[in-house]
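re: ur question from earlier - yeah i can do the single chain one, its not a big deal. heres the input i used so u can compare w yours
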Amino acid sequence: MLFDTRMRISETLLIKIEDVDFARNTIFLPANNTKGVKDRAVFFSTEMSKILKRWIAFKDRYRDSDYLFCTNKGNPLKVNNFEKNFRDYTARVGLKNVHPHVLRNNFAKRFLMQGGSIYALSRILGHSSITVTEKAYLDLDDEDLRQNYIPYSPLEHIKKSRRK
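and the output i got, formated as tokens:
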């Protein structure tokens, strides 16, 4: 969910089921739950929708809580507990230096590499300004730039138009 929605952990752990709109594949994040203290919506994929529906059905069998992710007592999970469990799970499968925020960074890089606008990315991530987004996520290396360049090569486009 963190990877698909690019939410921060703290935002994710405070989601209530009523904030999830399956008709629009959107989650409403109230201002008091966001870093920027502004209401915002995040979007999720059709695949994530299926997973969330299964999760809610499972969770509701065992826990009576308004929170999407809760403790055994129905309270929201704590960020530090989530991060510790995440580190333990990634270590168990042999991943090193992977923490939850890496998923947000990876989303941002993939978004840009697939042609997404830095301006749209800034809004999607809930940043206060594009400058914040540029500082945090414009760390593309030479290989990233090469891959991004290929579809826009002027010479390749000239060759393709001459073939037609």
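The chain is about 55% helix and 5% strand. not sure if urs matches, ping me
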